[in-house]
Amino acid sequence: LAARPLVDVRVLLTAGPTREPLDPVRFLGNRSSGRMGFALADALEALGARVTLITGPTSLPGPRVTERVDVETALEMHGAVMSRATEYDIFVATAAVADYRSAAPAENKIKKNADELTLRLVRNPDILAEVAALPLPPFTVGFAAETDRVEEYARDKLNRKGLNMIAANHVGGAQGGFERAENALTVIWHDGQRELPMMDKTRLARELAALIAERYQEHHAA
Ligand code: PMT
After folding, report:
1. 126 annotated ligand-binding residue
2. Per the annotation, does 138 bind a ligand?
3. Per-residue pLDDT for the chain (222 aa), expressed as one digit of tens each?
4. What spacing in Å lies between the alpha carbon of 94 and ligand 1's midpoint?
5. 116 in a domain, yes or no?
6. Is residue 60 part of a domain?
7. Which SS3 state, helix, strand or coil, does residue 74 take?
8. What is the tally of structural domains in the chain?
9. Which stretch of DSSP H or E encloses residue 102?
10. Which residues, including other chains, have CB under 8 Å from residue 48's CB and lie 6 or more apart?
């Protein structure tokens, strides 16, 4: 039983980037490959969980999950998550969601007539914060991608958004994070923290999944 501590636990997990259209052929995006989220979905399913994966566009195969929902924009990801969130025990936000979208995507391809082009952007909803603010929220795990003061910013996010756990990675430079096969995480919760050093994302995901299971069970028993 201890090898599969999440049997029958329902997990909702976001992964990958979002794409925010500017016109029919262009979008704003980011460097998330989906690797970290897919590996984590696999690892949680291996611990017995029933995982629903909500993913932005990636070129990755798999993973082996109970259900997979493909989305493109932050608003679509928001809709897919919020319509399901109350049915889940754990929510994990691995996706790199665009913070802004075009205020008015052009109906036709934007022409390059002018020397300068100004785009007006508006804020996207914060999916993670909205899930954590539900009246009966699932056990909520966020990620934080920071280029500096990783631990300080991550602990601030944990408290400000009312999360149960946050996994912080140092992005930029040669530090892992986006796109790469390897990553390192500082995992923080209210009364503890653990360093998961640089390793392959598949192994890292197994260690993080075990840690989530541990904290979830302690939370559940409390
Ligand atoms: O996909 P890979 O190439 O493997 O890369 C993995 C990763 C670097 C993308 C991943 O490990 C990671 O850090 N994901 C979160 C990246 C991120 O966008 O962090 P953030 O600090 O901007 O957001 C903080 C948290 O809020 C995240 O859990 C994010 O999913 C969530 N969020 C953010 C904005 C928003 N509108 N809605 C959200 O739910």
Report:
1. yes
2. no
3. 568 999 999 999 999 999 999 999 999 999 999 999 999 999 999 999 999 999 999 999 889 999 999 999 999 999 999 999 999 999 999 999 999 999 999 999 999 888 999 999 999 999 999 999 999 999 999 999 888 898 999 999 999 999 999 999 888 766 677 878 888 999 999 999 999 999 999 999 999 999 999 999 999 888
4. 5
5. no
6. yes
7. helix
8. 1
9. strand 100-102
10. 4, 5, 6, 7, 8, 9
Q: In ligand 1, which atom is closest to the CA atom of 131?
A: 39
Report the amino acid identity of residue 174.
A
The answer, yes or no, to whether ipTM is higher than 0.95 is: yes
Within 8 A by CB and 6+ apart from 130, the residues are 78, 82
Q: Which domain holds residue 83?
A: 10-98+122-221
Q: Which residues lie with the beta carbon below 6 Å from any ligand 1 atom?
A: 14, 32-37, 74, 93-97, 99, 124, 126-128, 142-145, 169, 171, 177-179
Q: Does the residue 1 lie in any domain? A: no
The answer to whether residue 108 sits within a structural domain is no
Expressed in angstroms and rounded, the spacing between residue 4 Cα and the centre of ligand 1 is 27
71: domain CATH number?
Answer: 3.40.50.10300
CA of 108 to the centre of ligand 1 (A): 31
Of 58, 67, 192, 173, give the one whose Cα is nearest residue 184: 173
Atom of ligand 1 nearest to the CA of 94: 14
The yes-or-no answer on residue 30 being catalytic is: yes
The pTM for the full model equals 0.96
